Amino acid sequence: MTHDPTGQATALVVGPDNKVALHTLQLRGTSGNQWIVENGLDDGDRVIVAGLQKAQPGALVQAVEAQPADAAAAPSPAPVTGEPGPTAQSPKLASRAIVARAN
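^ thats the sequence. predicted structure below, dont judge the formating
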């Protein structure tokens, strides 16, 4: 998740057609390092948390489920950027964290 030039919170989401879409978010606040999303995401949305630099709205990507931070030492897929991006989970929404790889 990030902010656009006007300061509005946004997230890149992978749609069912594997195309990236930009969602504008309404935030309620934060809890620690987590963003609390009031509106803008739906249950099951696949939010991109890595590979953001190469994932642009309309781009076709390969979505790979991201490993939770507390997962065992199993190898995780390498993000496009080589750097993991910020993660956000809303206690209200069951969105999934996704690593986007450019096709």
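The mean pLDDT is 74.
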